[in-house]
Specification:
By secondary structure, the protein is α+β, with helices and mostly antiparallel strands. It is built from 3 helices and 11 strands. The chain has a 4-stranded antiparallel sheet, with no helix packed on it. A 4-stranded antiparallel sheet has the order 6-11-8-9, with no helix packed on it. A hairpin with a 5-residue loop joins strand 4 and strand 5. 27% of the residues are buried.
């Protein structure tokens, strides 16, 4: 069993160091991410006031739960899973980043829409292509029947696979590379 310690100073220092090492700049990257989540909330129909109130709720949760990481306007990863907060006015939480349907996709292609609404279209086989999608979104694996797409971690190990023809939803934040099909 894994124990999660909430040592504020240690976690904060590791987070700052890791953020600087990965992005090269902590605050500018965090501000850009925050702006993307605000746009996501506005795109889901929230007013600016509601989007700001939602972000304050996310920030308040993160302040008391140092292991939580925001992955969309109202969704956080937490040890062992995820947490989706209800938007102001919602009785039941729904991920504001989750698309309602799979993207259209040409025959022989793998199409992805991430939580920001970015659309990716892959059709070359055999190579691991860098992927920078974030948040919950959808995919359409419209390749030749039984062709396998691979979604990889930052160290190029397989996170999960999908066999064509298929559509579905996924959290794109932990995916760093996509192999549309084995060549």
């Amino acid at each position: 069993m894994k124990l999660w310690k909430k040592t504020a100073t240690a976690v904060a220092m590791v987070g700052v160091i890791a953020g600087l090492a990965v992005t090269g700049s902590g605050p500018a990257s965090a501000e850009a991410q925050r702006a993307a989540y605000t746009r996501q909330a506005l795109g889901a129909g929230l007013t600016r006031t509601q989007a700001d109130r939602l972000q304050r709720s996310v920030d308040a949760y993160r302040a008391g739960n140092l292991d939580a990481r925001q992955v969309s306007a109202n969704k956080l990863t937490i040890p062992g899973g995820s947490l989706t907060l209800p938007a102001p006015g919602q009785k039941t939480a729904r991920d504001l980043a989750a698309a309602t349907s799979a993207p259209s996709c040409s025959s022989g292609h793998l199409c992805i829409v991430d939580g920001r609404g970015y659309r990716y279209d892959y059709y070359y086989c055999g190579e691991a292509y860098p992927f920078d999608g974030i948040g919950a979104g959808t995919f359409n694996n419209n390749q030749t029947w039984f062709t396998k797409a691979k979604f990889l971690n930052s160290n190029l190990t397989t996170r999960w696979t999908n066999t064509a023809k298929d559509t579905g939803t996924a959290d794109w934040t932990p995916v760093y590379y996509v192999i549309a099909c084995d060549g």
